[in-house]
Amino acid sequence: MNPKMQRIIRNPSFLLLLLCLLEFSGHFPVEAAIKKYTFDIQVKNISRLCHAKPVVTVNGMFPGPTIYAREGDRVIVNVTNHAQYNMSIHWHGLKQYRNGWADGPAYITQCPIQTGHSYVYDFNVTGQRGTLWWHAHILWLRATVYGAIVIMPKPGQPFPFPQPHLETNIIFGEWWNGDIETLVNQANSLGSPPPTSDAHTINGKPGPLFPCSEKHTFALEVEAGKTYLLRIVNAALNDELFFGIAGHNMTVVEIDAVYIKPFTTKAILLGPGQTTNVLVKANRPPNRYFMAARPFMDAPVSIDNKTVTAILQYKGVPNTVLPIFPNLPAPNDTAFALNYNNKLRSLNTVNFPANVPLRIDRRLFYTIGLGMNPCPSCVNGTKLVASLNNVTFVMPKTALLQAHYFNMSGVFRTDFPDRPPKPFNFTGAPLTANLGTSIGTRLSRVEFNTTIELILQDTNLLTVESHPFHLHGYNFFVVGSGIGNFDPKKDPAKFNLVDPPERNTVGVPTGGWTAIRFRADNPGVWFMHCHLEVHTMWGLKMAFVVENGNTPENSVLPPPKDLPPC
Ligand SMILES: *[C@@H]1O[C@H](CO)[C@@H](O)[C@H](O)[C@H]1NC(C)=O
Ligand SMILES: *[C@@H]1O[C@H](CO)[C@@H](O)[C@H](O)[C@H]1NC(C)=O
Ligand SMILES: *[C@@H]1O[C@H](CO)[C@@H](O)[C@H](O)[C@H]1NC(C)=O
Ligand SMILES: *[C@@H]1O[C@H](CO)[C@@H](O)[C@H](O)[C@H]1NC(C)=O
Ligand SMILES: *[C@@H]1O[C@H](CO)[C@@H](O)[C@H](O)[C@H]1NC(C)=O
Ligand SMILES: *[C@@H]1O[C@H](CO)[C@@H](O)[C@H](O)[C@H]1NC(C)=O
Ligand SMILES: *[C@@H]1O[C@H](CO)[C@@H](O)[C@H](O)[C@H]1NC(C)=O
Ligand SMILES: *[C@@H]1O[C@H](CO)[C@@H](O)[C@H](O)[C@H]1NC(C)=O
Ligand SMILES: *[C@@H]1O[C@H](CO)[C@@H](O)[C@H](O)[C@H]1NC(C)=O
Ligand SMILES: *[C@@H]1O[C@H](CO)[C@@H](O)[C@H](O)[C@H]1NC(C)=O
Ligand SMILES: *[C@@H]1O[C@H](CO)[C@@H](O)[C@H](O)[C@H]1NC(C)=O
Ligand SMILES: *[C@@H]1O[C@H](CO)[C@@H](O)[C@H](O)[C@H]1NC(C)=O
């Protein structure tokens, strides 16, 4: 080797460049990297809609920081709590194989991090790539404590769609002018729902249809002819949202960090908890175009039509040009919603197969109900509740995963019913009598590696409504869905067992049902709940205790030393 070359190779920055080139060309077995983050939970004054108020944040940011990782990386997040509330963080959609200790739902997998204390979430990102998100999983603190998780494919692995010129996060949220915990406590003492939010937001900003939004509008500058990847997250608490961009189509390429068969649409729909990646080509005359989101609501409850806007702005177009508004589906457009969800199909290629369980070991049927239980201190002597198979879940005082791991008795029972105690015409005329539920911390015990089919059936108890259901610890396949009562004789014949969408959160249609399948190969205690915060609070939740397999490699890992005590 000539001396000049030797000098270059001894130069560390050259080596780094060489490593990067090798990494990108995929010739080099690259060690998994460790990505370290520090989350300082702190209260900060934030101002929106002409109101300033102290809110709980991560590192003073609203929304919080984005976690970037590659498939295969280890992520270490040291969370220190300086807020007056107890805190826990959930990494929504990360499977946390054998590692429920890092999942985060308070009192399910961990006791919360108390004020002045730290806890380190330490997890591997295995077999997943795409957009997910993180959020507080205690009280209603996720109203301001949330952010995106971007998982890039392994080095040298391109996306299975055209490489975008640039990518950006689009995170929907909700903003209340009042203090959210105060509003929730007031509502609970009345036994009624808390008020709907005062605005929807995109990346924390409500946009120009709301007052005092000059500084609070998100804008994405684009160059004509280029393609952009939008990583869209619905972090709203209680609203399913339609989203569209004036004049532009979107090509949907991924949902909940799973690639899908691309399709083109003028609008997309996300339930709270869901994520969607779309490609957008800047192929329209240079101008300013609104990106807008507003709720989808087809139940007989009041419609919240507040529209958040952001701006897609072509380079060189002055800020004074009035943006063009998109043509979003009507808030009650059930047909659009059903049709959109029907278009979602797993990519199902050799590299990204859809391993749908075909032989089912255990069939579950859960009814979703709203109800009214006695509440002597409430105004009308009753409070609104929600239930699965008529069980309103009661939060324990000790974390369930600890109780399970350490064989503590008396914390939970494992008699959650596999089907509703009393069958009825689930989606017939609204039922307003017999609205009581039974209450308890009841879990469903599942043998390791069994295959589960779960039908989630909405009911007419009090009212029908659509419910975005989220399962922790797993992705599942959405094999079928329909309106009315699930028919066990006819509906299974229509299941898609070839390329159904694989996700972690799925909407159960208003007055309808959804069928999901998964293999219970992740031992631990895994929460399943409606991702409408108001329904979670009312008890629309349960958990699976998935037993250990018969080897240490199929068993729950030992808890970390700094696991918070209760
Ligand atoms: C936050 O804003 C409120 C209302 O404007 C004000 O009273 C308070 O002093 C502010 N707190 C901090 C820490 O800036
Ligand atoms: C986490 O952060 C806190 C606060 O800075 C610090 O005291 C603690 O040592 C950190 N923990 C680890 C494991 O680094
Ligand atoms: C993450 O992966 C590393 C390397 O394979 C392993 O040593 C570690 O135990 C894993 N951590 C968890 C929480 O699974
Ligand atoms: C109490 O009942 C009345 C009459 O049914 C109803 O209008 C009101 O909204 C109820 N209040 C609450 C807090 O549920
Ligand atoms: C959007 O897609 C529709 C249907 O595929 C098509 O008719 C229309 O031309 C497309 N618009 C743009 C701007 O690409
Ligand atoms: C929302 O509904 C209200 C009342 O029905 C109406 O006045 C308002 O124009 C609607 N706003 C939007 C953005 O559709
Ligand atoms: C949707 O709402 C519009 C306006 O309120 C109403 O005219 C229409 O009948 C509704 N459509 C359905 C299917 O309920
Ligand atoms: C809990 O019980 C199981 C089965 O009896 C046993 O294998 C395990 O070691 C116990 N765990 C602890 C932490 O005592
Ligand atoms: C359930 O109720 C619906 C609507 O009232 C009715 O059309 C249907 O026949 C009922 N089904 C049964 C099995 O009674
Ligand atoms: C639910 O349980 C309560 C309390 O046991 C009972 O009164 C009610 O009839 C049950 N409702 C249904 C739909 O099973
Ligand atoms: C789970 O069961 C499937 C099908 O029987 C089998 O292929 C797989 O190896 C099992 N997984 C584990 C971890 O035992
Ligand atoms: C925080 O959690 C601890 C332990 O569960 C509990 O004793 C305390 O009351 C909680 N603090 C608040 C502010 O809720």
Notes on the protein architecture:
- The chain has 566 residues and is mainly beta.
- It has three domains: 128 residues, Immunoglobulin-like; 186 residues, Cupredoxins -  blue copper proteins (Immunoglobulin-like); 193 residues, Sandwich (Immunoglobulin-like).
- Helices cover 9% and strands 37% of the residues.
- The strands form seven sheets. A six-stranded mixed beta sheet has the order 10-9-12-17-14-15, with no helix packed on it. A six-stranded mixed beta sheet has the order 21-20-25-30-27-28.
- The longest helix has 14 residues.
- The radius of gyration is 24 Å and the shape is globular.
- The N terminus is likely disordered.
- One 2-acetamido-2-deoxy-beta-D-glucopyranose binds next to strand 4 and strand 6.
Looking at this protein, list some descriptive labels.
mainly beta, Immunoglobulin-like, 566 residues, 6-stranded mixed beta sheet, disordered N terminus, 6 helices, globular, binds 2-acetamido-2-deoxy-beta-D-glucopyranose
And the CATH topology of the largest domain?
Immunoglobulin-like
The chain-level structural class is mainly beta
Q: How much strand?
A: 35-45%
> Per the principal axes of the C-alpha atoms, what is the gross shape?
globular
Query: Helix fraction?
Result: under 10%
| Tally of separate helices | 6
Query: What's the Cα radius of gyration?
Result: 24 Å
Low-confidence spans: 1-29
Can you name the CATH architecture of the largest domain? Sandwich
Measured distance between first and last alpha carbons: 63 Å
Overall domain count: 3
Could you name the CATH class of the largest domain? Mainly Beta
Strand order of the largest sheet: 10-9-12-17-14-15
Instruction: Give the oligomer, counting copies of the same chain as homo and different chains as hetero.
Output: single chain
Q: Outline the biggest β-sheet.
A: 6 strands, mixed
Q: In the CATH hierarchy, what is the superfamily of the largest domain?
A: Cupredoxins -  blue copper proteins
Give the tally of β-strands: 32
Q: What is the mean predicted local confidence, pLDDT?
A: 94
Bound molecules: 2-acetamido-2-deoxy-beta-D-glucopyranose
